[in-house]
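User: My instructor asked us to take a sequence, write out its structure as tokens, and then describe one feature of it. I'm not sure where to start. Here is the sequence I was given:
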Amino acid sequence: MEPIVNKVAESGIITLDLAEFVLKDEATAAFDLKPFLFREMILREKDYRTALQTVDWSPYANKHVSLYCSVDAIIPVWAYMLAASYLQPHAASVNFGTPEELKKQVLIQRIADIDVTEYADKRVVIKGCGETPIPDMAYVAITSKLRPVVKSLMYGEPCSTVPVYKKPLVKN
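Assistant: Let's start with the prediction itself. The structure tokens for your sequence are:
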């Protein structure tokens, strides 16, 4: 009887799971400007500056913070800048946008920060169908990041993939 051979394991295929790059909820915090508005409509500069000086910034320590306003109000750009200047010394990062937009921004940044050398001339599968929802934009970003260096790029699971890119053979 011949031993069972795992052809997927022997294929040299590297599986990359984008869920590993998704920001966990406990690593995030939101800073909403709504409570600083007069009647949820108007930002009064003096009141806003005074209020920011009294905020306890410790809950934002080492967190990725989304900075936004949850009501439809006209917020001057400097108001976001001022809040960011208070958050920055405490937070891991300060990002403009809703909490959902924050997760997308950090995911795209983490993909941009990937060291592609470990994927050079390798066969790579971008894992699909996981439990963690991955925005489509992340798949586009990882394709753009890896295509210039990989031997082939696929989507799915190593046992059932959809080919995305294959480096052309160079003829001498």
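For the description part of your assignment, you could build on this observation: The chain has two domains: 7-23+110-166, 25-104. Try explaining in your own words what that tells you about the chain.
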